[in-house]
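Supplementary Text 2. Reproducibility record for the structural model of the 157-residue chain.

All settings were left at their defaults, and a single model was retained for analysis rather than an ensemble. We include the record here because the model underlies the residue-level annotations in Supplementary Table 4.
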Amino acid sequence: MIRDCICLASKQLAAFIKNENAVLGLPMRLTVSIIIGTVALIAILSFILNPCLFPSKMIISVDSIVNEIPAGNISADFNFTISVSEADGHPIRNANVIIKGLGGIGSGSTDENGEVTIQITVEIEDGQYEGYLDVSVKAACHETFSQNDMIKIVRGS
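Retained model, structure tokens:
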């Protein structure tokens, strides 16, 4: 029985080797199979790493765009309330918000209402009367928002 199987396998191998079309087509079939497999693997990995094919835009609002440091001070603590929502007005939960600039930095995540309050200490150097803070927001399945000089800080007179 085993001898018959070995004989049959050797006959099929001999027929495969004698068939020039099969031998010539083998590299092409292997190449096509590798290309199709690679494309399928890339598609699967890209979906796993980024499940949102078309990220949507966010609308960001700050409770006060212009803030004042009291006269005679060079630094002050501020609480900024940032609201993050979709274009249709629905709030975005768990969006990461970062405010930085003027020697301070603060961050937080939005709640179920799409709001976060961030406390930051800013400092305006002597000789300057205004400065700006940058705001960046990241949320899953949404385009990253980044706005330089979004919040203005002025020194009181």
